[in-house]
Amino acid sequence: MGYARFSYADVYVFLSCYGQLECCGCWLRTEENPSIATSFYETEEMLEHLKLHIAAGHNVPEETIEDLKADALVNDKWIDNVYHGMCTSCEGYGVCLVRGPPPPKHADDCWGCKGSGLCKDCEGMGGNKEWQAYSITIKESQ
Ligand SMILES: [Zn+2]
Ligand SMILES: [Zn+2]
Ligand SMILES: [Zn+2]
């Protein structure tokens, strides 16, 4: 999901499929400042980072800030889940989403699951071993 692009802004901000908010090609990462963080696990950290851009006179659209804030709860939850090993292909459900959102129709010719209806990347587990343990603790706390 993207929040800003270089075509209309001085930052390129998006939520990566690897579970981090990215400031891609960040202009603040320079030879003088090579170690500045450009990937974040929390929306709040990204908003703080964008303040540095604004302070440097870069064009950060207001919609970018507003959209990030509006999605903060959902994004931070998702990032946390991915951090704990959730499969992003099936969003932790273990079902094949190749044929669109649920309820999926899965024929033998589905290139994802070959008809089994299980996610091809986690084979229906919803994530790695760490995720399985973590998802149990989520269910118990609900
Ligand atoms: Zn940046
Ligand atoms: Zn999966
Ligand atoms: Zn399928």
Structure, described:
The protein has two domains: 2-72, no CATH class; 84-142, no CATH class. Helix content is 34%, strand content 8%. The protein is built from three helices and four strands; from the N terminus they run ββββααα. One zinc ion binds next to loops.
Apparent shape: elongated
Relative strand content: 5-15%
Return the average pLDDT rounded to an integer.
Answer: 92
Runs in which pLDDT lies below 50 for 5 or more consecutive residues are none
List the topology elements.
Blueprint: E1 2-4, E2 13-15, E3 21-23, E4 39-40, H1 43-55, H2 62-83, H3 129-141
Antiparallel strand pairs: 1-2, 2-3, 3-4
Helix pairs in contact: 1-2
The structure holds zinc ion (3 copies).
What features would you highlight for this structure?
alpha+beta, binds zinc ion, 8% strand, 142 residues, 2 domains, 3 helices, 4-stranded antiparallel sheet
Q: What is the structure about, briefly put?
A:
The chain is an alpha+beta fold and 142 residues long. It has 3 helices and 4 strands; from the N terminus they run ββββααα.
